[in-house]
Amino acid sequence: MPRESPGTRFGRRPTRAADGGVPPIMNRDQRTSARGRGSVAETPDNDWVARFADEVIEAADRYRPGKPIVCASGISPSGPVHLGNLREVLTPHLVADEIRRRGVPCEHIISWDDFDRFRRVPATVDSSWSVHVGKPLSSVPAPPGSEHANWADHFRAPLIEALAELGVEFRGISQTAMYTSGAYTSQVLLAMRERQRIDAILAEYRTRPKQAAPAQRLSADEAAMSALALEGSGAADEDDGTGIGGYYPYKPYCQVCDRDLTTITGYDDATTALTYTCACGHSATVKLSEYHHGKLVWKVDWPMRWAYEGVAFEPSGVDHSSPGSSFVVGGRLVDAVFGGTQPIGPMYAFVGLQGMAKMSSSKGGVPTPSQALGIMEAPLLRWLYSRKKPAQSITVSFGQELQRMYDEWDALTSRVSAGAAAPAELAAYGRATFTVSAGRLPETPVRLPFGTLASVYDVTTGQPEQLLRVLRDVAPEADIPSLDVLRPRLDRAARWVTTELPAESRTQVRSVPDVAALAGLDDTQRAAIRLLLDGLDAAWSLNGLTTLVYGVPKKLLGLPMDVKPTPELRAAQRSFFVLLYELLVGRDTGPRLPTLLLAIGADRVRELLTPPGQ
RNA sequence: GGGGUGCUAGCUCAAUGGCAGAGCAGCGGACUUUUAAUCCGUAGGUUCAGGGUUCGAGCCCCUGGCGCCCCA
User: How far is it, in rounded angstroms, from Cα A19 to Cα A61?
Assistant: First the structure.
């Protein structure tokens, strides 16, 4: 690692990514021996992830000794899986990774809730899709234009891709596959047999009469907000099985219309004969032991799966923190009905975007992990999640703050390399850059500051030869044989500039000279520009141009080139710069002039700065 | 109405009951340089309020205030 190389003219000195090796998180022995004098400073792995791993290992040891530990996520692919949902995946991922890091077998499963009902048609999709409301998500056609087989696939596929890039190892479990294959049949029958006990437990948390419409008194907006919030965390809305003909924790999809607008009118425990009627008019009696086209209601489904998979750790959104939530009720049911144990399940706070309080898939353009990875390197995105305890909210910025995020990240990397990082930082960094199963995540070999890349990309309008030339000039001590060593960060910066940076923040080099302004220049200004243009070729380097642009006003004032700046000189320099910015980019400020000039190119600079008739 | 969660420097946030800390912004300085670069230095605090437990409380308990979230 280069240590104290001199700073560059433009941008901080580039850093090379650390090469492979042991992740910078101490093992448990080191940690234990490092305690002393109550010092927090020497317990690097005692971050929130490690603490959960401690708890989970201990609990799993008690309840399922000898079996691999299971950490779980549940994702409902009912719409874009956004950065809030990503927490549902990354939280167990980080804990599972820590457990593996300690050599304890551990599996991270993601339950794809693709057998859930299709609730509503988003505004972005043709309203004709409303005929599918009530069907399993895996039976609904994908939105128009999609290459995917069905609705669930369409939203699941990009997430799977993003998770691969993020180094998240998991086993996906399609609930459609599980239910329709009959894998849960004995659990379904058990729940039906125990329906009265289940109903009684649910009733403890029901404060309203059974038939009360939950959203009755809310305004339309409130009702919509509430429904969307629930959907966002894959949560617990859904009716809990309460019906007119008695309580059943199971809901069949109709054989004819494929929707769940069904009502169970009779069930016989001995024969498992189940009779239902559907809103479509169909009515049938099926043998539940052989009928695999239906599912347990959510509040029963979830604890069933805890028991089935032996889940030891599964977080959930804060919407589960209330008394009657499915997490709380599930904890009762898993024990009372399914003979399992409730996993350790921290509530995680919402992920916010800039001013937005929280994300929901409702509003169009809620960023997904794929979109975030378009502008953030994978370790950086992981870091945003690893450095915050689940209860702390996360704010992801797609705006100017992103540059700062990158700068912080680079500064952290330098501190880690120098051995100067604080313990919590070190842990968050290690978890962001390395996983047991994926190893060290790919990093950009030569890291130039994100802001530098963005700004150079902006002024060169992304032309590869120009980019390479300018970036070499800008960071002469960095070895840049080709643009490839600057990737993937360069591509992230490019995408950020083109998709996120508002037009008024971009630098737009004038396409034609500002003739009127050029004609109106006074003699001093003309002389200054003359001096600049005359010296241009000889000074064509970052250093040379720097001396030149600062030197022109000195010359005009009759000062020697090595003069210490006086207030008068500074004012002259400043107004000279403003003049150049106006003529080159039509604003009074911009990227540092030497960089800007290099980016524009000498010929074009002459064209833009030469008064008419000269 | 019930529950959850948060309130710490101007801002964003750290701190496992043990000397309240970073980053950014600010201020001062350096680099032939007042830009959207970098480096060094520096200041900045009644930890929302009040009470309690403790040798010791930002942290634990109680009461209250304000914000956000969820449930009803």
Answer: 36
